[in-house]
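Weekly structure sync - notes
Attendees: PM, LS, DV (DV joined late)
Agenda: review two folding runs queued last week.

Item 1: First target. Sequence and structure tokens pasted below for the record.
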Amino acid sequence: MDQEPHLGNLRNTFQRACELIAHGNYEAALRELLWINDNPIPDFLPSEMFRRACGFQAWEQLAYLYPPAKKKMEEVLAKNIEAAKNGTAGTSIQADIRRMQGILASELLTSSE
């Protein structure tokens, strides 16, 4: 399977999300960022690195501006933690858990409360 087109889709979706954030369309931006989160290719390292570095960073910035984005990240994190407890989480989800926990504990989000 050629995975390069998927990486291009991730990049395009990320760019759309950033544009939506810049224009104040936070709800639509959150949908785009959730798509990035929900479409991993765990065996394709560039995809996973892009998701965690760019996608989650944009999600953190959106969560600062738009509280429903923070709430959604907390929900996704809880679902991933439950999967990890049930033994159904692979290493990709484990890495997502660590990244989301770090974001939710970040000064940017904790100082806005």
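Item 2: Second target, run right after the first with the same settings.
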Amino acid sequence: MRASLMQIAVEEDESVESRRQRVAALVRDQRGADLVVLPELWPVGAFAYRQFDAEAETPTGPTYAAVADAARDAGVWLHAGSVVERAGDGTLYNTSLVIAPTGELAATYRKIHRFGFDTGEAVMMGAGTEPVTVPLPGDLTLGLATCYDLRFPELFRSLVDQGAEALVVPAGWPARRREHWTLLARARAVENQSYVLACGTAGTHAGVEQAGHSIVVGPWGDVLAEAGPGEEVLTVDIDPEAVARTREVFPALKDRRLGLAAPHDR
């Protein structure tokens, strides 16, 4: 399976609509990939809190419309990163969209762990409540997480219990904590014996320089590909069977004792 992570530069001098159209064109260029992944909140910028309310949309709003057509034209599964969703009751959510090659919305995930402590996303947005997995053709199940979620291993255990073999993490990760980004991505891969596809943004928005360095990690924790700091498309071939082989050769997940989906004896 060929996966392309699109590390989009989010800059303040580009309008949201211009970026939508530019990114849609980039997605169309990915014909030949099986899965394309975009970063967190790339239309508006993950730290552009003052724009969240004005740019909020439904899951099938203008961002979906732009990139769903592109996914269909390219014939790819598209993890479209995330958008600022406005729910029917007015609550805002940081919501990821997964789009099938038909252009149909296949799944959504509302970010569970909101960043900002007592500011920004943490107070402006509602929290998701449900882990989400998405089965793809070719026997690969995606587990969905977003940015700050990467610091909470219990979410990833839950995704593995639901069958996840590749953990997809779109992000708007700041440059000043880039080492954490790489370390945590590798840790989630090793402890869950899963692929991690972590796709961040480049550029600077709302005064926050972005880390870039999108990364694909294999189920043994080896870095299969890593981007630089600027806008870049990172493409890598992943083997869905490698997860099963890793878990068979080194069956650590069978020795879990806390938080098991179904407790067992040795």
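Discussion on item 2: The chain has a mean pLDDT of 96.
Action: LS to circulate a short write-up before next sync.
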